[in-house]
Amino acid sequence: MFCIWAKIVIMKLAKTHLDLGLFSNRRDEQLAFWQQTVGLAYDHMGKLGGGVQQHRHHMNGSILKMNHARAPLPALAPSGIVGVQIAREGLAAPRALADPDGNKVTLVPKGYEDVEGIAILLRVNDPAAHDRFWTHAMQYERVGDGRYRCGDSLIVIAEQGKVASSEEWRGPGYRYTTVQVWDCLSEYEGILARGGRSGGAPRLLGDTVRFAFVVDPDSNHIEISQRASLTGGRL
């Protein structure tokens, strides 16, 4: 399945699920929460550098990236990402949870409000600016008022309120989403050409991944990732 990010050029996804990244100084408590309370299967740990380890968990095809920082994280204001909904078979009603740092997580019955995989919830300063960004720069599909789909994942404008913009993506709590693509460079350049703003130029991490960042109108970071394990080694 593909997301159409332009009228002529179709962005080829390497994976039809968005990923979600958070940062924390509380490794053991976070791992216990995501694995035991939420019930996510652990995948593996990778090193991001700077004393940060990424603990990856399976989440309906998406990946929950729990990035543990050894040093204290900077005292940044919260990002605009205010929660995640995770579809779960067999639930009769939503179940609200919070991780050890207070990040909101809701387990929902599969299909609840059209959530088949995950929904990433945003607080935004300007809903109209976000609508233009998600439908034009990112070219996600609008599937309802303030609801945007890529693959089987949703971006949802859950509330309007003050969001303090930050150019830094390593801070406490939910900080970024990831879309996995076949060609990081062309997709990054296409988003910028459609009015998106860079949050970090393309770079290589060994022979594992080529990635870049763009930012939404409130400076929430979106990683454009070309991962060798998904593209048959192609970087």
What does this structure look like?
The protein has 235 residues and is mainly β. It has one domain (19-227): 2,3-Dihydroxybiphenyl 1,2-Dioxygenase, domain 1 (Roll). It has three helices and 15 strands. The chain has helices at 27-37, 127-137, 184-193; strands spanning 19-24, 41-49, 52-59, 62-69, 81-88, 95-98, 104-109, 118-124, 141-144, 147-150, 153-160, 173-180, 197-205, 209-215, 221-227. The strands form two sheets. It has an eight-stranded mixed β-sheet. A hairpin with a 2-residue loop joins strand 3 (52-59) and strand 4 (62-69). The radius of gyration is 17 Å and the shape is globular. The model is unreliable at 1-9 (pLDDT under 50).
How is this fold's topology laid out?
Blueprint: E1 19-24, H1 27-37, E2 41-49, E3 52-59, E4 62-69, E5 81-88, E6 95-98, E7 104-109, E8 118-124, H2 127-137, E9 141-144, E10 147-150, E11 153-160, E12 173-180, H3 184-193, E13 197-205, E14 209-215, E15 221-227
Parallel strand pairs: 1-4, 5-7, 8-11, 12-15
Antiparallel strand pairs: 1-12, 2-3, 3-4, 5-8, 6-7, 9-10, 10-11, 13-14, 14-15
